[in-house]
Amino acid sequence: MIFVKAGGECTQLFDSYHPLSARRVLEKLCIGSLDARELVVTYNEDLEEGQFFAVLKKRVKKYFRGNQIDPRSSTSYYLKAALILATVALSYCGTFFAFQSFAASLASAVVLGIAMAEVGVSVMHDANHGAGGPGARGVLGATLDMVGASSFMWRQQHVVGHHAYTNLAGGDPDICSAADPDLRCIMPAQLPQPHHRFQHIYMGALYGVLAMKSVFLDDFASLAGGEIGPVRVARMTRAEAALFWAGKAAFFCAFVGAPVLASGHSWAALAALWLASEAAAGWLLALMFQVAHVTEGVKFVEADARGRVPHGWAEAQVLASADFAHGSWLWTHFSGGLNYQVVHHLFPNVCHTHYPAIAPIVLDTCREFGIPYIVFPTFWAALRAHFRHLKTMGAPAKVPSLATIG
């Protein structure tokens, strides 16, 4: 995890990944001043005694210690990972080799796409945030490379950028700055363009290309340009570079080369099967993440001219995120715990199977400090709220939604 942002501004990452006691060693480890060219955003301190994040950290730590639970790992996580990876292997064979019937292969392709998306939300997501046992973390994190995307680039975009500066224009690479052109208009600071009036319609289709875009375009563009939006990409270690290129080569050989050489389907059928699997993966991934941060009620954080945000970092995570379907075993496992998005952002290296247990602690602490916590009752309610938000933001005379759902 050190290599994710070594040598750069990582205050928010340090605080979210470490216990309060770790701050005591910082002064004696000081080696110099931060490069002034680095993006520096200052959140209000909320780790002092009696403040929100300090209180919350102590309560969550007490829960895990009192119940003798390893917060980073669980047996159910490993069993679930094994089931998902087995499903990828079996549906891959069914899609390209096992069936003569195109209809059967197409059904298998959809299952393959869902299983690849599950690798993203339920397997590699935890591991690349530092969850899981030390021996398994690297292997499970690399499963993203197995399905075509780069785990290294994902950590740069998601861990370094999105988690440190959630919904902050100019800091979070998942959203554009107000001045940049974008297919979407999603925050009050953006001025809607004529095409944004229909974004709640066309984005539903475009979300299906998310997985393909990442595999074929984004990873290589980030490598060549050395940046992902406002995030400067860290220098790869030799092992990271080897995994990047080996993963890309293995994916293209397995998903393109082998089917062309050995499948009984025509090239046109293979193209349709491949597109079906990638579209299924893209839609699932896009919608799981969009309902968490681009929806009614969430806050798009703004910094002033000096880079100061008028919230504590932990408070900003709660304000910029939304949960759905609390208490649902199905959605917790299918979404990889992303239905507890607030909990995930506050404690990113806690294994997602523990989120339902610590969510009440987070909810109670938020109520105590007067911080709104958005929870949609179902995934479908969250999905509708996302597309309503797109429609509202794309309107010529948009009025930002201030509603929260308690």
TrEMBL record:
The chain crosses the membrane at residues 77-99, 105-124, 242-261, 267-289. One of its GO terms (cellular component) is membrane. GO terms for molecular function: oxidoreductase activity, acting on paired donors, with oxidation of a pair of donors resulting in the reduction of molecular oxygen to two molecules of water. This is Fatty acid desaturase domain-containing protein. The keyword Ligase does not apply. InterPro entries: FA_desaturase_dom (IPR005804), Fatty_acid_desaturase (IPR012171). Keywords: Membrane, Oxidoreductase, Transmembrane, Transmembrane helix. Residues 106-375 form the Fatty acid desaturase domain. One of its GO terms (biological process) is lipid biosynthetic process. It comes from Elliptochloris bilobata.
